């Protein structure tokens, strides 16, 4: 992925992107990057999709999934020992790992830098966040572990050169052909 090179990601860092058939607008990283087709259908440019992919790539590069899983496993284990919770609690707790606000903010900054290095600007980087802000149900879930969406948008907008001469890169139709997303 060209964006990963703009993030100084290690050459041997495996990057795999999978599309999940799901109407919800979402993306997440484990060892892999998962993007819902709901998100793909909602973005209007390659630039907007690149922000999401670069953000998730930053999580992998920064080892956030491993750090989050380890921290959550330790907390769950201690809680289970102290309060005598069963194994089911431990497994559910680990499965619900999420990134800290600091990890999310760092991933945003890394992604914006990657977009700046790749495209020469960060225009449309806020598009995904604007769309989830409009979707109240998703926004409420999203805000539970993520920084305030409006503040993220404001931060992104501050990075932008609003030149009218800059053109966004159209989203390739090939993306939609992958899983017949039309």
What does it look like?
- By secondary structure, the chain is mostly helical.
- The protein has a single domain, classed as Zincin-like (2-Layer Sandwich), CATH 3.30.2010.
- It contains 10 helices and 3 strands; from the N terminus they run H-E-E-E-H-H-H-H-H-H-H-H-H.
- It has helices spanning 2-5, 37-42, 46-61, 64-83, 87-95, 101-119, 127-134, 136-143, 149-158, 173-178; strands spanning 17-20, 27-29, 33-36.
- A hairpin with a 3-residue loop joins strand 2 and strand 3.
- It is globular, with a radius of gyration of 17 Å.
- Residues 90-96 and 139-143 have low confidence and may be disordered.
Distinct helical segment count: 10
Number of domains: 1
| Helical content (DSSP H or I, runs of 4+) | 55-70%
Order of helices and strands: HEEEHHHHHHHHH
User: What is the CATH architecture annotation?
Assistant: 2-Layer Sandwich
Q: Beta-strand percentage?
A: 5-15%
> C-alpha Rg, in Å?
17 Å
N-to-C span: 24 Å
User: What is the CATH third-level topology name?
Assistant: Zincin-like
* Count of DSSP strands: 3
């Amino acid at each position: 992925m060209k964006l990963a090179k703009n993030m100084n990601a290690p050459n041997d860092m495996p990057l795999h992107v999978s599309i999940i058939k799901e109407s919800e607008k979402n993306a997440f990283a484990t060892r892999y990057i998962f993007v819902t087709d709901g998100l793909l259908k909602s973005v209007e440019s390659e630039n907007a999709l690149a922000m999401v992919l670069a953000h998730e790539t930053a999580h992998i590069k920064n080892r956030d999934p491993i750090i989050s899983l380890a921290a959550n496993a330790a907390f769950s284990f201690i809680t289970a020992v102290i309060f005598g919770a069963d194994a089911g609690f431990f497994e559910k707790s680990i499965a619900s790992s999420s990134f800290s606000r600091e990890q999310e903010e760092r991933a945003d900054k890394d992604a914006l830098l990657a977009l700046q290095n790749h495209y020469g600007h960060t225009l449309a980087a806020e598009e995904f966040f604007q769309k989830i802000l409009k979707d109240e149900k998703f926004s409420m879930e999203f805000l539970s572990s993520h920084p305030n969406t409006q503040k993220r948008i404001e931060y992104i907008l501050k990075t932008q050169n609003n030149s009218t001469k800059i053109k966004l890169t159209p989203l390739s139709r090939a993306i939609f052909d992958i899983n017949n997303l039309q």
